[in-house]
Amino acid sequence: MWPRVDGMRALELGFPGAMRNELNSLVLAGAKTATTCLLDEYAEEAEGLEYVGERQALLDDEGRAVATLLYTGVEVKPFGEVTWEHAEAEGEGDASLEAWREVHLRFWERAGTPVDDRTLLVCLSFRVVDED
């Protein structure tokens, strides 16, 4: 199960430490309005998919909420079908879809879950509705 904060499910971006701090900063600055998760992680965590209109707490390394996110889009698609529009909305400075793909392939490989073009992902779009 994912952590719960103030009755909401919670989202922890990236790996703890510098990566999470940077990603959270991008969200709070309004530069990051999307993220991508592996569909298999939902089954492993016994969690349902997010839904449009759901609010989630964005957490820091100590499990404290730094913002409340409102989901504006939820799509399940294979890694090979992620669009540049979604990749660019992740706001992490990737110059192209190919660069985004490389960064994400390395991230998931480092996390112990290599992906290929058929691996199903959950593409989430959101906006900040409250900063804590």
Features:
4 helices, 29% helix, 6 strands, alpha+beta, 6-stranded mixed beta sheet, 132 residues, single chain, globular
Mind explaining what this structure looks like?
With 132 residues, the protein is an alpha+beta fold. Helix content is 29%, strand content 32%. It has helices spanning 18-29, 39-44, 84-89, 97-110, and strands at 4-5, 8-11, 34-38, 55-59, 65-78, 120-131. It starts with a strand and ends with a strand.
| Percent strand | 25-35%
Multimeric state: single chain
- N-to-C series of helices and strands: EEHEHEEHHE
Please give the share of residues in helix: 25-40%
Based on secondary structure, the structural category is alpha+beta
State the low-pLDDT regions, or none.
Answer: none
Major sheet characteristics: 6 strands, mixed
Nutshell version of this structure?
The protein has helices at residues 18-29, 39-44, 84-89, 97-110; strands spanning 4-5, 8-11, 34-38, 55-59, 65-78, 120-131. The chain has 132 residues and is of the alpha+beta class.
Q: Helix and strand layout, with pairings?
A:
Elements: E1 4-5, E2 8-11, H1 18-29, E3 34-38, H2 39-44, E4 55-59, E5 65-78, H3 84-89, H4 97-110, E6 120-131
